[in-house]
Amino acid sequence: MREIHSYQVADSIEIKNIQQPEQLKGTLHYRDTDELLYKGDDGKLIYIFKYGVVSFLGFTKEEMQQALQVIKPYCKNFFETPMFDLFKIQIGAHENKLGYDQISIIGEDIEVIRLVMLNVSQSVSLDYYTDLMEKLLSETTYHTQLLESKGRLGIRGNKLKRYIARTLLLKNRVAENLYIFDSPPETWEDERLNKLDIDLKKTFELQERSRNIHEGLTIIKDNLELFRDMLKYRTSTMLEWIVIVLILVEVLNVFIEQFRTH
Questions:
Q1: Of 92, 30, 85, whose CA–CA distance to 200 is shortest?
Q2: 3-state SS of 23-48?
């Protein structure tokens, strides 16, 4: 039984700038604009994804740490304490069998192994986005409860603008990475890979978790729009009162001037 370790190490990784570092021992098995897969002579695999995930098969803890340091310069916002997931794989089993936290496969088909690593990586990325969404949702709930109990908002001005920007940024990042949950092209022509991909997505609940993130972000966005509209109304009302006060001051000045002339 071998182990797949997948780490969300950064917001993103500049795949196009990674060549063939000597420290990443092995040969390049697959490359496109979003993914890199290196295969070692000893069967070890390292899978690097544009959306900030690095997945390992057969690496020791020390080897993984060394590889991550090699990849670090290509990362945007590198996490010193990355989020990770572990999945076990038995290669050369008597039958194909998928369990909750492990899989057994017949033979040593690298495309099958790659598909498993891909789904584990998607899973840890969803954990990362779920964590970000839940933090924003918790903060939004706090301000909503404050509005209910005290009838006023505890967030305004530039702080509210930054908060809205954080929400929109997360929403955009999730939208940009939606492709990661699509089935890879190889599954379109191979019925065996297609079935495995469907089963893995069900095991990791990828579609449901992705939908939950979008629903959470929608709730946050709706609340923020309400906060923004309330502040606009408050600002508008304040401006109206300022205009009224200025008019009154001007009227008083007129009366005072008339009084002085008489």
A1: 85
A2: CCCCEEEEECCCEEEEECCCCCEEEE
How many other C-beta atoms can be found within 10 angstroms of the C-beta atom of residue 187?
Answer: 18
Q: Of 68, 110, 75, 73, which Cα lies nearest the Cα of 89?
A: 110
Predicted model pTM: 0.80
For 147-175, letters b (16+ CB in 10 Å) and e give beeeeebebeeeebeebbebbeebbeebe
CB-based contacts of 29, cutoff 8 Å, min separation 6: 37, 38, 39, 45, 110, 114
In the sheet that holds 97-98, the strands lie side by side as 27-31, 35-39, 45-49, 53-57, 2-8, 83-91, 102-105, 97-98
Task: Compute, in degrees rounded to 10, the torsion defined by CA atoms 192, 4, 87, 18.
Answer: -80
pLDDT per residue of the chain (262 residues) written in tens, 0 to 9: 899 999 999 999 999 888 765 666 678 888 888 899 999 878 899 999 999 999 999 999 999 999 999 999 999 999 989 999 999 999 888 888 888 889 998 888 889 999 999 999 999 999 998 998 888 888 878 777 777 777 666 666 677 777 777 777 777 777 676 556 677 778 888 888 889 889 999 999 988 888 888 888 888 878 777 777 766 645 545 555 565 666 566 656 656 666 666 5
CA distance 142 to 138: 6
Q: Are 165 and 228 in contact (CB under 8 A)?
A: no
| Angle ∠(8,219,217) on CA atoms, nearest 5 | 20
Residue pair 97/112 in contact by the 8 Å Cβ criterion: no
In the chain, what are the domain boundaries?
2-108, 120-231
CATH architecture of the domain with range 2-108: 2-Layer Sandwich (3.30)
